Amino acid sequence: MRKIKEVLRLRFELGLSQDQIARRCGISPSAVTQNRPLMVT
C-alpha cells in the first residue's frame, strides 16, 4: 500500500513520468503501469 501511495504522490505532486517513478520507487515500469487505473484524473 505504501508503494501505491508513493507512486500516486510522485505522479500528481511532482508530475514524474512512469519511468522516473519506477526508478525512484525501485519497482519495474510495468508495476507503475498496473496502477494506472488509480491514476485517472
Overall description:
- The protein has 41 residues and is mostly helical.
- The protein contains three helices and no strands.
- The protein has one domain.
- Helix 1 crosses helix 2.
Task: Provide a compact summary of the structure.
This protein has helices at residues 2-12, 18-25, 29-34.
What general form does the structure show? globular
What is the CA-CA span between the terminal residues?
20 Å
- pLDDT under 50 segments (min length 5)? none
Using only CA atoms, what is the Rg?
A: 9 Å
Number of strands: 0
Number of alpha- plus pi-helical segments = 3
Order of helices and strands: HHH
Structural class: mainly alpha
Q: Classify the helix fraction into a percent range.
A: 55-70%
Query: Sheet bearing the most strands, described?
Result: none
Task: Please name the defining characteristics of this protein.
41 residues, mainly alpha, 61% helix, 0% strand
Task: Give me the secondary-structure topology.
Blueprint: H1 2-12, H2 18-25, H3 29-34
